[in-house]
Each structure stands twice: as C-alpha cells, then as structure tokens.
Design goal:
This protein has 12 helices and 12 strands. The chain is an alpha+beta fold. Strands 1, 2, 3, 4, 5, 6, 7 and 12 form an 8-stranded mixed sheet that branches. The chain has a 4-stranded antiparallel sheet with strand order 9-10-8-11. Strand 6 and strand 7 form a beta hairpin. The structure holds alpha-D-galactopyranose. Alpha-D-galactopyranose (GLA) binds next to helix 6.
C-alpha cells in the first residue's frame, strides 16, 4: 500500500524536493450517544482500522497541490496558503485548506505550501467521518512538518481534534460537535472513547466483542441537504434550551438534565417539535451513560437494547433517520443473533452500526441487503469493521 501510494505521489507531483512522508488517520463509528455532542452530553465512539492515507511533502513556496485517488477525475487541485477561503470549485480540498486556515487562526502560522496525495478506504459520505479523518490527518501532517519548532511539537492530539472541529465550523460552515475529530485523533485499538463533551474529560472503555462482530451497513443514500438539516437540529435544541433557561437560569446544557428533570420542565418548551428534539438529547445522553456502565459489567445484551432504543429516539423524536436507515435497522432487528442495531453519525443517510454474533453475520448481510434493495431500489454496502488506533506516521 505504502509503496503504491508513494509511486503514485511521484507520478502526480514529480520527484523533486524533500522526501515525502506517509501518514494515516482513521475513520470513526459512534456506538451510542448521537446528537448529544453539541448538547453538552456524552458520546461513545471508536476509531476504525479503515481511514485516510496521505502522502505529503513540504514545499519551499506558498503553493498547495492536492490530489485524491478517490476523485481522480478532478485531477490536481491547486491553491495557495495566502488568502485561504472556502471555494466551491476547491471541492474536497476545502477540508485540508480549512485546517491550514485554522492553524493560522490559532497562531500556528504555516509558512510554506505542500503537495498532498490522499487515498481513503472509508466509503465517502457514509457517515464514518471521512471529512473529519482528512481534517485530523492534515493537522497531524502539519504538526509533523514543523515539529522542530516546539510550539508545533507541543500540539496535542486533543488539540488537533479541536482545530479540526473549529475548521469545520468556521471554514466549512457545518456546526458540528467535537465527537468525530476527537474519536479520530484519540483513537485506541479495541477501545471506545467515553467522552463528556461538556468538559472533554474522557475514558477509554475496552470493547470486547467475543464471538461477535461490528457490522456497518451503508445506505448509499445521497446526502443532499444533510448539512443544513444538521444545523437546523442544532438550533432547535438551542432554542429549547433557551426556554428552559428562562425557568432554570443555572442550566448550561441539555446534557445536564436527567430524564425526570426534563419531564418536569418540558412544558416550558413552547414548540412541540423542539420539545421532541430536546427530549432526544436528554434521554440519549442518559442512555449513553447507562450503556457504558452495562458494557463495563460485560452486559452486552443491555448495551444492544440501549442501541435499539437510541435508534427509535433518533427516528421518532429527532427525525434524522429516513426510510433508508429505518429499513436497515428494522430488518436487522428481525435477525437472530443481532445484539443491537442503530443508525450512527449525523443521519439523513449514512450508515448503521450493528453488533452481530459471528454465526449470524452472513445471514445479516444477505437478509438485510436483499430486503433493503427490494424496498429502496438500490443496494446497501456492508463492512465488518475493527476498532483501531488514532493517526500515525507510517515509517518507511
Ligand atoms: C456528525 C457531527 C458530530 C455529531 C454527529 C451526531 O457526525 O460531526 O459532531 O454531532 O453528527 O451525533
């Protein structure tokens, strides 16, 4: 893989200049705790062994040259480190450009341009965070380029996550929370990350799936309006919180409420739709805390039950599933040996995550696949995934 990528890099960008480095950043899947990260709640994601590979070489001018093996038809996309702004025609390169911009904003000034070739084995737009993977990868590369400077060398992986989210919010206009970038930057093999998004305190929790697999089903639905719908959900929650704060001024976020406290206060949310959104945020956060406790006690059945409840709440109260994700999950629930199944990520398309007993994996892929294609009219894709580490430099 590494040699092939280097070969391609030289073919696209030529051999002149410094020795390029080869890097990797994972994708992520969230096991439970959806749409809680911008509501001051908990999440429980993990990094995957699939992700984005990058070959990068520092230049001695201000030019940026990008090439992706996933979008070869777009060819080399060029820009400059001077006057960075998001541009439609810059396409996917707005993600790495956003990171350079964010480094500059945080006073980690980037003096030179670079050549970057990417190859991702995460399905694009699948909801496994291919964009956050590119963001963290770019930050990791920039830190490595300038590591002789102690200011850069002292940037932690956690800060790379924060810079990634900042660039996505301010440069690329998606008001996302911290979950994706954090899960990717802080990933640890065979562990999920129990993160309190209000404080960024976190803990690794081993995910020991003995006799079971994590299966991702990708809906392949085109996610047209996903970003604007995502921002809409976020502002619905903010509106609901404001009304609750009028009654309870010390309340900082929906994540601070228990189910009981929410039930007592919910009548103060005037719009019933916003009340449903807030209900999801509160209950999902509590579910996440319970799910991690169950996992620690090795109660995977309870963990799966909470995953299923999470999906129902995302479908009925948060309304981010759609017929595609609902079909994948409802078909999964019919199969013996499925411990739990739910949509994962932002929703509106994207994918589901299921815990499936080893002996049921083939039936799962066959039955869910056939039923999905019959109902939706096109096929889903399935991936049996493993939990991997965070970003790394691949030593030549
Ligand atoms: C997207 C966002 C995350 C998070 C999830 C929903 O993946 O990038 O910050 O809000 O949706 O849980």
């Amino acid at each position: 893989m590494k040699d092939k990528l280097l070969e391609k890099f030289y073919e696209v960008f030529g051999r002149e200049g410094e020795e390029p480095g080869v890097y990797f950043a994972p994708g992520r899947v969230n096991l439970i705790g959806e749409h809680t990260d911008y509501n001051g709640g908990h999440v429980f994601p993990c990094a995957l062994t699939i992700g984005t590979y990058g070959v990068a070489r520092k230049r001695n001018d201000s030019k940026l040259r990008f090439y992706s093996l996933n979008f070869e038809d777009k060819g080399v996309i060029e820009s400059s480190i001077i006057d960075l702004k998001p541009e439609k025609q810059a396409d996917w390169t707005n993600y790495p450009k956003g990171i350079i911009w964010a480094f500059n904003e945080k006073n980690y000034t980037i003096p030179y341009g670079f050549d970057l070739l990417l190859y991702g084995n995460i399905p694009n737009g699948s909801g496994l965070s291919s964009s956050a993977s590119v963001e963290v990868l770019t930050g990791f590369i920039l830190r490595d380029f300038y590591k002789e400077n102690s200011i850069f060398d002292n940037i932690s992986n956690e800060e790379l996550a924060i810079i990634g989210q900042f660039s996505e919010n301010k440069f690329n206009g998606v008001n996302c929370g911290i979950m994706d970038q954090f899960a990717i930057a802080m990933g640890k093999k065979d562990n999920a990350i129990f993160l309190d998004t209000a404080t960024l305190k976190f803990e690794y929790a081993p995910v020991k799936l003995e006799g079971m697999k994590l299966v991702i089903a990708c809906s392949n639905k085109k996610r047209g309006l996903a970003d604007s719908k995502y921002n809409e959900r976020r502002s619905e929650c903010e509106d609901a919180l404001k009304e609750l704060q009028a009654k309870k001024p010390d309340l900082n976020s929906l994540g601070e409420l228990t189910e009981e406290e929410f039930e007592e206060l919910k009548s103060f949310i005037s719009d019933p739709v916003k009340a449903k959104r807030a209900k999801h945020a509160v209950y999902e956060n509590q579910r996440t805390v319970k799910a991690v406790a169950a996992l620690k006690e090795n109660d995977i059945i309870e963990f799966g039950r909470l995953m299923n409840q999470s999906h129902e709440s995302l479908s009925k109260d948060y309304e981010v599933t759609g017929i595609e994700l609902d079909t994948l999950v409802e078909e999964a629930w019919k199969i013996d040996g499925v411990i739990g199944s739910r949509m994962t990520g932002a929703g509106f398309g994207g994918c589901t995550v299921s815990i499936v007993k080893d002996e049921a994996v083939d039936t799962f892929i066959k039955n869910v696949g056939e039923a999905y294609e019959k109902k939706i009219g096109y096929a889903a894709d399935f991936y049996v995934v493993e939990i991997g580490d965070g970003p790394k430099k691949i030593i030549l």
